[in-house]
């Protein structure tokens, strides 16, 4: 079960309130895309869900379990950043397997999971290479592979394609959509790219200045923007 429920979530840094009363229920298997202008709180919201930052208000439930007070590692999520953060001295195989280090699995089980992730992401020919020998797109796939093996309840992506050039971004976007279909895992995905949002999302959440402006399927937001802000932001006819 991979539901993610945000119940009145708020966050302040000192005096500055950056997120306010965020209420959102993300369904099992949903591809939920967060959009909004720079500084509106997208990354902070992901970090709160991931447990990399503490909420100032509200509760977070994952798979029906209240995780608000849990450490990041115990939330059973996986976060993929725009910077790949791979270990340069390890091979692709070792980078992916390292994500399972703390799970204390038998070696054969680790090898099986790594092989399965490599197959799914077409990384098999690259398993013995170092990250420095890979392209940006390949490194991003390794980072995703490292997440997959942990079989998270949900994946969190913070602008994962923003470092890629346009053609690679399009290619990787299509791969991500295919991966989501294969895995069926809940995904929460931050982007400032309209095309990514429109093509990947089951639902788009539009954030503005720390609050939710509108939530809905891409076509609904495009055809029936609730506010001027949403219309302008999505570039929809108003
Ligand atoms: P986005 O990802 O939508 O661009 P962020 O979530 O990164 O926005 O930031 C939202 C706001 O919170 C910004 O004004 C940012 O400066 C502020 N902020 C983010 N992290 C911190 C922090 N650790 N300390 C203080 N302010 C922060
Ligand atoms: Mg951000």
Automatic annotation (TrEMBL):
It comes from Histidinibacterium lentulum. The chain holds residues 1 to 238 of 331 of the full protein. GO terms for molecular function: ABC-type maltose transporter activity; ATP binding; ATP hydrolysis activity. Belongs to the ABC transporter superfamily. Residues 4-234 form the ABC transporter domain. GO terms for cellular component: ATP-binding cassette (ABC) transporter complex, substrate-binding subunit-containing; maltose transport complex. It comes from the Bacteria. This is ABC transporter ATP-binding protein. The keyword Transferase does not apply. Keywords: ATP-binding, Nucleotide-binding, Transport.
């Amino acid at each position: 079960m991979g539901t993610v429920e945000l119940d009145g979530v708020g966050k302040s840094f000192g005096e500055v309130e950056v997120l306010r009363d965020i209420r959102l229920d993300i369904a099992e298997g949903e591809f939920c895309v967060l959009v909004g202008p720079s500084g509106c709180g997208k990354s902070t919201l992901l970090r709160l869900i991931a447990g990399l930052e503490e909420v100032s208000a509200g509760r977070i439930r994952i798979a029906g379990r209240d995780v608000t007070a849990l450490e990041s590692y115990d939330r059973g999520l996986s976060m993929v950043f725009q910077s790949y953060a791979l270990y340069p001295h390890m091979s692709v195989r070792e980078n992916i397997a390292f994500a399972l280090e703390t799970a204390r699995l038998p070696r054969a089980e680790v090898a099986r999971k790594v092989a399965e992730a490599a197959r799914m992401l077409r990384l098999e020919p690259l398993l013995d290479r170092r990250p420095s020998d890979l392209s940006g797109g390949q490194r991003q796939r390794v980072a995703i592979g490292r997440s997959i093996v942990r079989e998270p309840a949900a994946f969190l992506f913070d602008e994962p394609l923003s470092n890629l050039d346009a053609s690679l971004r399009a290619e990787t976007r299509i791969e991500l959509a295919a991966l989501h279909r294969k895995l069926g895992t809940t995904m929460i995905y931050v982007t400032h790219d309209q095309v990514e949002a429109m093509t990947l999302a089951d639902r788009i959440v539009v954030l503005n200045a720390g609050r939710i402006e509108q939530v809905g399927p891409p076509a609904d937001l495009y055809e029936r923007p609730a506010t001027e802000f949403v219309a302008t932001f999505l570039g929809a006819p108003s």
